[in-house]
Amino acid sequence: MSTSKLLGRALFACFLLWAGDLLAQTEDAEAHQLLTVLAESSSTQKKAAVLQIAGSGDVRSRGWLESFANNKLGRIESSGQFIIVLENRGRNWTVESALTGENLGEISRRDIDTVRVNNALRNELEGILSVIDLKSPEEHSRLTAARALKGSVDGTLAERLPELMNDEKSDAVRAALTEALAIYKVEEQGDVAAVATLSGSLNSEARAALQQAMRSDDAALVAAATEAMASIEQKLTLNRAAETLYFGLSLGSVLVLAAIGLAITFGVMGVINMAHGELMMLGAYTTWGMQQLMPGQPGLALILSIPAGFLVAALAGVAIERTVIQHLKGRPLETLLATFGVSLILQQLVRTVISPLNRTVITPDWMSGSVMINEALSLTLNRLYVIGFALVVFAGLMLIMRKTRLGLEVRAVTQNRAMARSMGIKATKVDILTFALGSGVAGLAGVALSQITNVGPNLGQAYIIDSFMVVVFGGVGNLWGTLLAGMALGTINQLLEPWAGAVLAKILVLVFIILFIQKRPRGLFPQKGRAAEG
Amino acid sequence: MWLTRPLQERSTRIFLGVLFAALAIVSVLHVFMPQDSALYVSAYTVTLLGKYLCYALLAVAVDLVWGYLGILSLGHGAFFALGGYAMGMYLMRQIGDRGVYGDPILPDFMVFLNWQELPWYWLGFDMAWFAFIMVLLAPGLLALVFGFLAFRSRVTGVYLSIITQALTFALMLAFFRNEMGFGGNNGLTDFKDILGFDLRTDATRLGLFIATGIALAIGYVICRGIVTSKLGRVSVACRDAEARTRFLGYRVERVQLFVFVVSAMLAGVAGALYVPQVGIINPSEFSPLFSIEIVVWVALGGRATLYGAVIGAILVNYGKTVFTGIMPDAWLFALGGLFVLVTVFLPKGIAGLLFKPGKSRDASNTPSAQEAAA
Amino acid sequence: MSIFQELTNRDQVFEFLTPATSPVDVRHGPILYLEDVNVSFDGFKAINNLNLTIDDGELRCIIGPNGAGKTTMMDIITGKTRPDTGSVWFGSRHNLLTLSEPDIASLGIGRKFQKPTVFEALTVFENLELAMAADKRVFPTLTALMKPEYRERIDEVLEMIGLKELHHALAGILSHGQKQWLEIGMLLMQKPRLLLVDEPVAGMTEQEMERTAELLISLAGKQSVVVVEHDMGFVRSIARKVTVLHQGSVLAEGSMDQVSNHPDVIKVYLGEEA
Amino acid sequence: MQKRVALLTNGATHSNAKDDEMSIKKHVKLGLSALALSISFNSVAAEDPIRVGILHSLSGTMAISESTLKDTMLMLIEKQNEAGGVLGRQLEPVVVDPASNWPLFAEKARELLAKEKVDVIFGNWTSVSRKSVLPVIEELNGLLFYPVQYEGEESSQNVFYTGAAPNQQAIPAVDYLMNDIGVERWVLAGTDYVYPRTTNKILETYLKDKGVAAEDIMVNYTPFGHSNWQAIVSDIKAFGGAGKKTAVVSTINGDANVPFYRELGNQGIDAADIPVVAFSVGEQELSGIDTGPLVGHLAAWNYFMSVESDANYDFIDAWVAHTGNEEAVTNDPMEAHYIGFNMYIEAVKKAGTADVDAVKDAIIGVSVPNLTGGFATMMPNHHITKPVLIGEIQDNGQFSVVWETPSTVAGDAWSDFLPGSKDLISDWRKPLFCGNFNVVSGTCGAQANVANK
Questions:
Q1: Residue C4 in this model has a pLDDT that exceeds 60
Q2: Which residues partner with B197 through β-bridges?
Q3: Chain B residues with beta carbon closer than 8 angstroms to that of D104
Q4: Closest chain B residue to A472 measured between Cα atoms?
Q5: What is the pLDDT at residue C232?
Q6: What is the pLDDT of residue D5?
Q7: Tens of pLDDT along D214-246?
Q8: Residue D210 class from Cβ within 10 Å (0-12 exposed, 13-18 middle, 19+ buried)?
Q9: Which of B150, B364, C132, D40 has its CA 20 to 30 A from that of B374?
Q10: What residues pair up with D300 in beta bridges, in sequence order?
Q11: Is the pLDDT of residue A334 over 60?
Q12: Confidence at residue A5, expressed as pLDDT on a 0 to 100 scale
């Protein structure tokens, strides 16, 4: 609890800061003095310096503290002038004066001493800023601030919280504050009444408080705490189960995305496209490229990369179909070898043309973080989007295959090439389109993956085998099979992982597939009839 | 007798002649040429050639199942690696107390992960004969079980290829795990000696090289014996018209199983000879990529010829040795391009270029001819 | 000697002594009979309550429009397709539904496919060699040697199917008709008790057809032969008893004249022509 | 081109002046100590160059990390040659590509020593590749400088370990977390291979010695390139939710890190709640990550690009000039090569020859400047002295140093926290001349026997 104690002192200071009429400008000399202390004192004394600045009541203090927290507060060696770093990439940094705020342009890194910060201090600063935010006009930041308080309330704050709650309009915030206060009471005062408020709370600090209470020697408290704990544990196990399921589905959706394009090229055309993974890679790189093209708006770039990624991969697909696959009609095993060669070439191409290093793909704000169902169960946003995306893509493909002319022709050609031809269907055209479609979908998968994993030359290899497993397991040439198989394998894997560990889980899934194929050589949903024989 | 039959056919005699001549020349140049002479073959080259021969044997094994039985195995690397591990375990035990921790029983990696006693599956590997039997048995059994399941339920073609890939992939993940007790990613290494011969002496290297050459010869004759026997013709029948073969009363799945197991054992032997020469065995030998590469050697050399497989294996790996030196980037392009070109434009491979098309099964082994020779 | 004699005489009694080529027991009734057989693919009823009996040594022709279920019926008899319901017996002792293709084949049922399937990568000679009745387990096959009597038998058949001079050619280069013959030859090598012949004369010249007809007739008696054929002329030339299949069940059965005057048959065929 | 040469030369003169005066000081010291027995024997004709083998993967999975080390070596050699080489001989790089294939490493090492006849090899990254070349190097009596932090438990008379041993990275980092952050609960997460396994074994013992209860330690291993971290991260979250301050000690390797940090960020674990200290995440890895959500997470290295020292600034300038890329980053293994290379040069000067055995003797005790403003000395166990720095990730993909060891730490070949090796020491000076001397039994292990053959 050491941190919260320290934080306590910080908070105390902040309340002084509220009490006194704020926002007077201290003399620059004085300000300079304050910062010098901060800059020159050792990391242990820095805390004191921080409190001083917070206490100074200077308008600029908040700005200083923030930039300090972000490692952006520095000093020019030569002049000793304090600066705030605006841009700190490369060897020359753009800075502005900390006191006057005037822009000082670019200064070589060599002349800048940044004021060192570390996590301990950052905790302090967050505490301070959050308490200041308790007064902020927007409910959202008040709520986060209130949540942040849980487990770090101290005597001083505890006295002020009730009055704060009274003039608090939002119930959510008030609830959070009440819990924060209750935690404090249970922890520090062993208040039995407060235990009731905590019962059923999923907040980890609350749990910690209760556990501590259970260790106390006050029988009544122990009893109450134990009871409260029981109710919490129950809730937790439920949430755990829900979470695992969610993990399973999200992994499944990734598998489905990776495999569904293959289900088209492999399942419908009988082409074993080992370069499928690299087509995904292209999609991912497209996303990166788009983000490079429009710096500053990763979100838009990402959305635009959905069509772009599809297009790029599709075109690549057409190229592969024309140059390689069309020469290998009815020789599936040979397509495997040839396309494997293609995959090697594509990988090396990316390595030499772009870089062997992974590329940074930025996650837009609306995709990072998670939606909090409750304090024990929150669904990560990027995966949520991926699940949705997978389902949309699947639905789209279903439509194309079932409702459009292309879909009809594709099915015709796959059932009986000669017959379809004689009915005036251009088989070659259909082949190209089908393969382009499958490849394009792979591109889409790549766009999605860029938000989950590395964007690098090896992205493809990581998924190709899994994708084949999914398709084969689901039953070749059956989209529903692919969907079901992907989701099933994903969930099985996640169910196994807790007790088998990540590696063993994967192995077990593979073995399971191998055995399953023995039982049902044509997967979950096999194609029946004389066509499928032979 | 099916094993001696190949010795009467021209192609085999030529092959063996070339092989043994090469062995002899290399040995002579290595032993009798002065170090500085241009003709001198260094120990480094000898080991390199030894490695190629291991790959060649592996390729022959793959050609046997793919070329003559039509089973495209993308998991033969697994059998190769298993043989290698069996040998590696023997070599590990041979180190004895000369490991860095001087532990008489436990290999080093077990000591610093403080394992207390040797896992049961390591027992017996201190005895050469046991290890050498395991070299055949481990891959053989895996092939037997896997093949039995697969062929019984008539998993063929693409499906088979993909589950063989799953098989080797699963094994790779398994061997990466340190709990398995096979040294995890580091695998087995720092071998000292084999059958009492110090692995660091050139004499031992030459010995291993020659042994590999002989193994290749024997392997080749066995495969040749099978494919020129009636069983070989039944295999081809299975490859081209499985159903028809069944209606003739042949148990296709048993034919497939037999040939598959033989091939797996040959791969195991190749692996076992590979390990002492390169000095390390680790899970990367299980990687699906490697298994696919093997198939490409065969495709390049020419399917269903056996000697084509040998040519392909040696050519590709020689190219690798050369190109990774001078142009590392270009190498992957070259390899990839090779895959595409061969499969698209050279379905018969180099053998198909060298000899008249349609002779992939040379007429010299029609029964009448053999009996005439016999 | 006399004892041996006796044994050989009594091998009708001791069933374990029946010849390996075909242990089928035809003393009580027909050599093959199908009862209430049903098969459906994805809901489509390929075979619908099919009942059929073939007597020992009979030559039976089966005709019927496309999709009548002729080939599917053969698949069932040879074990390639398992019916949903019904029973199929070979002689009175062998329930074919419990046996695999190789078992059925070695029991003595030979099949010639609609589309001639020979082993194109093997020579004509080797094709026949593989078909030859012999121990077909793995190791015997591995160590098998070409005995003179085998070669004689193969040469016989080569003569019979007129491919003598082509015996070293790869089967792949044969003409359609020659492949038909080769496949028939392979049937003969098998020494089957029951031959299932699917469209034997497709792609054959007139005189080839005649020879085929002679061959099949000559086979009948020693073996039972079931011929599926479209070519009415050919059927007429060999037919004793004809069965008409339609929509997976027997529409009519009897002599060629009987069936060709059968009203349903006429309807079906005219219906088809129109 | 002009500009680049200019940069390089003045860079070169800079540090070389330093090197020389330093080495003089050193020589005096060494004179006293009994180390400098070596006198140069058959000194080679001055004209033929010293051949420097470079054994780093330029293709395959490890190319990402290793190719930059190849360029570093080329740069260092170029600089040295412009400064007149050593002993009046130029240095000649011999580059081969082991293609991230472990058996190939052994093969290429043999090629370098037997065919190319190189005097020294700089190379390897992964432990398995080092293990694979080790027998070859020892058999052919070569010299190998190995620049990457590794699991220790090895000391070969032919190998010089210029990267960190566990006691130069892991243990100080844990100390920092324990004392400065007040961490009481530990997650040891790593990729399942020998380096994390060993490091975590050591840390486990170390923590338990420090009185950490077994239930406060959670160990987890994942395969290479693991990408689905959901379950594990949520376990960590739960584990950290028990009230005590928790930290993750990550030995997660390369590609697996991006999805790992992403998942951390998305599940709302930030450095303030559960700091992650990584041993395998450097500037180069960060260059492939969106560092926004990572700010404040830690890494322990012996060098950061952000270190504020002139030597470092010169090095960075030279590197940027060499690669011609303004954004080019430097990292710890590059510094290790920088140190190793300079040590080799010093040793050759001292021995007056490039002869392997002479250099082996001469190099022990040699001390050269590192890039963090201090000096690195080659110890008798063939490991070097290094400062240990803890850095926090910043949003610009750099680390800001928040803590460093008061003085440099000497690398320990045999960890004191592993039962197998606590009694072992390594000292390659005569008379002991043993890589794994057992102080209890007073005997030397296998390596010496082989060496003495």
A1: no
A2: B194
A3: 324
A4: B159
A5: 82
A6: 38
A7: 999 999 998 888 888 988 998 998 898 777 889
A8: exposed
A9: C132
A10: D390
A11: yes
A12: 41
d(CA D151, CA D127) in angstroms, rounded, equals: 8
Q: How far apart are CA A401 and CA A397, in angstroms?
A: 6
pLDDT band at A374 (very low <50, low <70, confident <90, very high): confident
CA C118-B306-B333 angle, to 5 degrees, is: 110
Which of D103, D418, D443 is nearest residue B278 as measured by Cβ atoms? D103
Domain count, chain B: 1
The neighbour count for residue C59, using CB atoms within 10 Å, is 22
CA gap A120, A438 in Å, rounded: 52
Query: Rounded to whole angstroms, how far apart are CA atoms A67 and A82?
Result: 12
Domain that holds residue B185: 5-373
Whether residue D46 has pLDDT greater than 70 = no
Q: What is the rounded average pLDDT for all residues in chain A?
A: 83
**Is B44 in Cβ contact with D111 (below 8 Å)?**
yes
* Angle (nearest 5°) at CA C228 between C226 and C230: 150
C131 CB neighbours in chain B (<8 A) are 248
Domain total in chain C: 1
User: What stretches in chain B show pLDDT beneath 50?
Assistant: 357-374
Determine how many CB atoms are found less than 10 A away from the CB of residue A20: 11
Residues A488-521 pLDDT 10s? 999 999 999 888 888 889 899 999 998 998 888 8
D216, D204 contact by CB (below 8 A): no
d(CA A386, CA D227): 15
In DSSP notation, A168-219 reads: ---HHHHHHHHHHHHHHIIIII--HHHHHHHTT---HHHHHHHHHHHHSS-H
Q: Report, in this order, helix, strand and coil percent for chain C, each rounded to 5.
A: 40, 25, 35
Q: Would you say residue C16 lies in a domain?
A: no
Residue C98 lies in a domain: yes
**Cα separation of C59 and A346, whole Å?**
63
Give me the DSSP letters along B183-235: -GGG-EE---EETTEETTSHHHHHHHHHHHHHHHHHHHHHHHHHHHSHHHHHH
pLDDT tops 70 at residue D50: yes
Alpha-carbon span A163 to A172, nearest angstrom: 16
**What pLDDT was estimated at residue A62?**
74
Residues 260-319 of A with CB under 8 A from B: 270, 272, 274
Is residue C196 in a domain?
yes
Q: Give CA torsion, residues C210, C212, C213, C215, to 10 deg.
A: 120
For residue A293, what pLDDT is reported?
92
Q: Is residue C115 part of a domain?
A: yes
| Closest to C150 (Cα-Cα) out of C137, C131, C132, C163 | C132
A303 vs C266: which has the higher pLDDT? A303
The reply to whether residue B248 touches residue C136, judged by beta carbons under 8 angstroms, is yes
Pairing between β-strand D144-146 and β-strand D120-123 as defined by DSSP bridges: parallel
Gap between the Cα atoms of D368 and B356, Å rounded: 68
- Please answer whether residues A454 and A214 qualify as being in contact, where contact means their C-beta atoms are separated by less than 8 angstroms: no
| Residue of higher predicted confidence among B174 and D11 | B174
Domains of chain D (ranges; CATH) run: 2-164+307-386 (3.40.50.2300), 170-278 (3.40.50.2300)
C–A touching, 3+ CB–CB pairs within 8 Å: yes
Domain that holds residue C90: 55-273
Candidates C238, C240, C239, C246; CA nearest to C262 is C246
ipTM: 0.83
16-55 in chain B: CB under 8 A from chain A:
none
Q: And the tokens for D260?
A: 């790992």
Decide if B207 contacts B197 (C-beta within 8 A).
Answer: yes
Q: Which residues of A touch D295 (CB under 8 A)?
A: 70
Nearest to B139 by CA among B79, B75, B55, B89: B79
Mutation target to probe the C interface, by most C beta carbons within 10 A, among B248, B259, B305, B360 is B248
